[in-house]
Amino acid sequence: MPKTKTLEKNKLQEPKMFKVILLNDDVTTMDFVIEILMNIFYHDFETASKIMLEVHLNGSGVCGIYTQEIALSKQKKVFNAAKIANFPLRVKVEEE
């Protein structure tokens, strides 16, 4: 009788994804927000401008959706850049 191999089906789960959200304030300049969106989140100028206006007009805007580790890393980069530039820009991470 021939030997048969049984392949075990392992279902890999997709990692949970997290939204990185910028929050509006009355001090941080629009130019700085665009700079953050281009340099940390790698958006082009047009996309960065659209997100900046969303933050400005609606109070918050999604910068991107990432795995938890990357989202938290980007949150820390935004916090550090804002601190260096003396802006109170806030950013939060939420599970999608």
Automatic annotation (TrEMBL):
GO terms for molecular function: peptidase activity. Keywords: Hydrolase, Protease. GO terms for biological process: protein catabolic process; proteolysis. The keyword Hydrolase applies. SUPFAM superfamilies: ClpS-like. Pfam families: ClpS. Residues 13-91 form the Adaptor protein ClpS core domain. Involved in the modulation of the specificity of the ClpAP-mediated ATP-dependent protein degradation. Binds to the N-terminal domain of the chaperone ClpA. Belongs to the ClpS family. This is ATP-dependent Clp protease adapter protein ClpS. It comes from Campylobacter aviculae. The gene is clpS.
